[in-house]
Design brief:
Length: 256
């Protein structure tokens, strides 16, 4: 029987923002469990991944570029360390998987089906991965667990309708990618974060909702007003990322 994808609260953290499992101390600093409708894990790959040899954080007006290599201990090690914490959590879990290889994605999704309190899987993809590979992930992973596809802005409207039509439960907006030169003159590519992303993200949410895509808004969500705007534009939930790293005395309260 397929599980329901339902958010009791509209605000959730984005993958990569709060670790692999809910930390009560961190959540307390953020305002407590009552602010969140679910917990999204850091990205997880089937095999362990080391950090990039050249990590970078480069600021630009209104945000920053981050390059990490998406390090993680691998699927089996994450389950060994965190699955019990997921089961005990008062928040439903959304497990974010790196889904570049459909056979590996299927193996991970099937491994999550017997774990309590996993509400959904969010699938993230490498840059420039073909639509055919993303669709194959959907075909191979359909089952008990709802599937959320994390897509860049340009694919939300072009590929999103096909995914929903064939069984995906929702689309979320992936952090856009960009490139900047670092202080040594080296061109660095990575994901972009910050308030300057919000207008584009809000436009994508509005356009997706207009054509009936169940959309999770993300990208530059920094204030309660931003989150409320996403919901008003038609988002079923709202992910926030870099705003969670801002010191509490410099931040605004979360959307209740």
């Amino acid at each position: 029987m397929k599980r329901d994808l339902y958010f009791s609260k509209s605000l959730i953290n984005a993958a990569g923002s709060l670790g692999f499992g809910p930390d009560l101390r961190v959540l307390k600093e953020l305002g407590g469990l009552t602010d969140f409708g679910a917990f999204v894990t850091n990205p997880i790959s089937l095999r362990p991944r080391l950090p990039t040899a050249w990590p970078a954080l480069i600021q630009f007006p209104g945000g920053f570029l981050l390059h990490t290599g998406l390090p993680n201990p691998g699927f089996k090690n994450v389950l060994k360390k965190y699955s019990a914490k997921w089961k005990r959590s008062d928040l439903p879990m959304i497990v974010h998987l790196m889904a570049d290889r459909p056979e590996e994605t299927q193996q991970m999704v099937r491994g999550l089906e017997n774990i309590e309190n996993v509400m959904a899987v969010e699938l993230g993809f490498a840059p420039l991965l073909s639509d055919d590979i993303i669709i194959l992930n959907l075909e191979m992973c359909l089952g008990e667990i709802p599937l959320i596809f994390s897509l860049p802005h340009e694919q939300v409207l072009s590929l999103g309708p096909r995914l929903i039509q064939h069984g995906a439960d929702a689309i979320s907006i992936a952090s856009p990618r960009g490139a900047l030169y670092d202080k040594d003159g080296k061109l660095v590519t990575g994901r972009l974060y910050g308030q300057s992303l919000f207008p584009r993200s809000l436009d994508v949410v509005h356009s997706a909702a207009m054509i009936g895509i169940p959309i999770i808004g993300a990208g530059g969500v920094w204030t309660d007003a931003d989150a409320e705007s996403m919901l008003k534009a038609g988002a079923m939930a709202v992910e926030t990322d870099a705003q969670l790293w801002v010191p509490r005395d410099a931040s605004v309260s979360h959307l209740p």
